C-alpha cells in the first residue's frame, strides 16, 4: 500500500515513519521517498491501523494512488 506523508521531509522523518509502522508490524517493509513525500509499505496490517499509527507519530498520511 502507498501513502503520501506531507510532513516527511528528510531521511530522519523517514526513519521515524518506518519505526512507527514497525511498532505495529515488526516485519513490515517500508520504502520511503522523502523527496517526494511518499512511502510504500508491505505489511499484513490493515490500512486504517497504519494510518492511525502514523497520525499518532505526527506524520498523518493520505492515500496515494497506486
- What does the radius of gyration come to? 10 Å
Strand neighbour order, sheet with most strands: 2-3-1-4
Largest sheet at a glance?
4 strands, antiparallel
Q: Give the H and E element order.
A: EHEEHE
CATH architecture grouping: 2-Layer Sandwich
Tell me the structural class. Answer: alpha+beta
Distance between the termini: 8 Å
Number of E-type strands: 4
Determine the CATH topology.
Alpha-Beta Plaits
How many domain units?
Answer: 1
- Helicity level, as a percent range? 25-40%
Arithmetic mean pLDDT: 94
**Low-confidence runs (pLDDT<50, min 5 residues)?**
none
Please give the count of helices: 2
CATH class: Alpha Beta
Strand content: 15-25%
From the spread of the alpha carbons, the general shape counts as globular
Describe the protein.
The chain contains two helices and four strands; from the N terminus they run E-H-E-E-H-E. The protein is α+β, with helices and mostly antiparallel strands and 66 residues long. The protein has a single domain, classed as 2-Layer Sandwich (Alpha-Beta Plaits), CATH 3.30.70.100. It has a four-stranded antiparallel sheet, covered by helices on one side.
Per-chain topology:
Elements: E1 2-4, H1 11-24, E2 29-33, E3 38-42, H2 47-56, E4 62-63
Antiparallel strand pairs: 1-3, 1-4, 2-3
Helix pairs in contact: 1-2
List the keywords.
4 strands; single chain; alpha+beta; Alpha-Beta Plaits; 66 residues; four-stranded antiparallel sheet; 36% helix
Amino acid at each position: 500500500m502507498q501513502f503520501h506523508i506531507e510532513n516527511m521531509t528528510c531521511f530522519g522523518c523517514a526513519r521515524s515513519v518506518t519505526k512507527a509502522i514497525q511498532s505495529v508490524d515488526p516485519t513490515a517493509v517500508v520504502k520511503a521517498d522523502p523527496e517526494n513525500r511518499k512511502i510504500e509499505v508491505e505489511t499484513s496490517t490493515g490500512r486504517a491501523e497504519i494510518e492511525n499509527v502514523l497520525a499518532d507519530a505526527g506524520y498523518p498520511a493520505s492515500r496515494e494512488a497506486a
